[in-house]
Write a structure and sequence with these properties.
The chain is mostly helical and about 300 residues long. The chain is built from 16 helices and 3 strands. It folds into 2 domains: about 220 residues, no CATH class; about 60 residues, Alpha-Beta Plaits, CATH 3.30.70.
């Protein structure tokens, strides 16, 4: 009986993983679907480019049909005519309160890349990185320093700042924009230098880390995940726990690749709503639902 139950639970988990993978693939393809840009090595400049996409979609990706909200935020803050963008403020409030970090788990292209890389077989996967609890705060420091403060206050002679995170850190931009443009655009090929080498070093580092650590960029570096994480406690789509069913077996926590203590903190800022804990729960005490009430049902 126990063997049959465990087999059934594994099948449910595999089905959920496949569903999430296909949602990620379809959404990434749909939002980066300007295939002519990839073939010609040039950036799409249509009207949809003025709109933000929820995930880490690089503006400079040849196929991108929209903009990255982090890149857009930096562009506003770095402008010499600095002003508050009501569009961006509304965008973060809307997406955050509706979805929270479900964007990271289901809709982010670079999240998909990390998920696929983690599937590569390796002798030993690292479940929890030493210093994990402290490292989690790095992304909030990057959000504050590289996304907000440096673009605002480190400016050139005419008062224009730089997109510091996109320029010096973001591996997603290197993969989705840098490589395709350098490969197809001769002008850009002649302009590459030490900065491109630096960005490639960062990208290769995260590619390697993603083989042995589940989503290291999402856990420790991504400022967009940091923003959405702030909304996890109030988002419309949340992880619900039925306390009348829970037997405190902690199977949900053991299944969580983001190292969330699910039973104690279902609204954790680190939860990406992937659903692994839901599949692991043999008591069906967990569910991801659209509901603004208390996440812990009694």
């Amino acid at each position: 009986m126990a063997r049959a139950f465990n087999k059934s639970r594994r099948l449910v988990s595999a089905g959920r993983d496949r569903l999430r993978l296909w949602v990620q693939i379809v959404f990434t393809a749909a939002t980066n679907g300007y295939f002519k840009g990839f073939s010609e090595g040039r950036i799409y400049t249509g009207t949809s480019k003025s709109l933000c996409l929820p995930g880490l979609n690089c503006y400079s990706c040849p196929g991108a049909l929209g903009s990255c909200p982090i890149g857009s935020l930096q562009a506003v803050l770095a402008s010499r005519n600095f002003s508050i963008s009501f569009y961006l403020t509304g965008f973060f409030l809307l997406v955050g309160t509706l979805l929270g970090r479900i964007v990271c788990g289901w809709l982010c292209p670079f999240g998909l890349i990390q998920d696929l890389i983690y599937r590569i077989p390796f002798l030993r996967k690292i479940k929890k990185v030493p210093g994990d609890r402290v490292l989690r705060f790095v992304k909030y420091g990057i959000l504050l320093v590289f996304v907000i403060l440096l673009p605002m206050f480190v400016v050139d002679i005419v008062g224009q700042g730089e997109p510091w995170f996109c320029k010096w850190i973001c591996p997603s931009g290197t993969l989705m924009a840098g490589w395709p443009l350098v490969f197809r655009n001769e002008g850009i090929q002649q302009a590459v230098g030490l900065l491109f080498l630096w960005k490639n070093a960062i990208l290769f580092l995260f590619i390697f880390l993603s083989v042995i650590i589940y989503r290291p960029f999402c856990k420790y570096i991504c400022p967009l995940g940091a923003i959405y994480g702030l909304f996890n406690r109030v988002s419309f789509i949340r992880l619900r726990i039925d306390r009348s069913r829970c037997v405190h077996c902690h199977a949900c926590t053991r299944a969580c690749k983001m190292n969330v203590q699910v039973e104690e903190n279902p609204d954790s800022m680190e939860c990406i709503r992937c659903g692994s804990c839901v599949s692991a729960c043999g008591q069906k005490a967990l569910a991801i639902r659209a509901d603004r009430r208390d996440s812990q049902l009694r």
